[in-house]
Prior knowledge:
The chain is an alpha/beta fold.
Amino acid sequence: GTALRYKLSPTGFGIWVKADAPFKSIADLKGKTIGSYGFKSTVFAVQRMAVQDKYNVNVSLDGGDFKFVQLPAPNLPGALSTGRVDAATFSHLQSYQARKGNEFRLLVNSAENLKEVRPTVFFGVPRGSG
Length: 130
């Protein structure tokens, strides 16, 4: 959270899919499985909030537009690679590694969404207001 708060343009904070996946938008993931490393993590909660606000989707863990599954963080890239999940929210290290490789692509940039819909959540007071 601290790294996200103080970096003006955090990258990798979002929903990843396989590079060759047919998904073009969050709408394409409705009814699909999204893996996460921690349902109780602040980052996951903020990601869901940003996606809900930006795309007007139901991100409830039960009965929402997506099927969320919790997996150990080290298992997420493998689960995504093998099709066990359709998308995943990677840890910061995994996001960094995914950006450097060509196996995965960022489908939803939650950091950009969050800056747009709730700029003060992680990014402090808007410029010129304090």
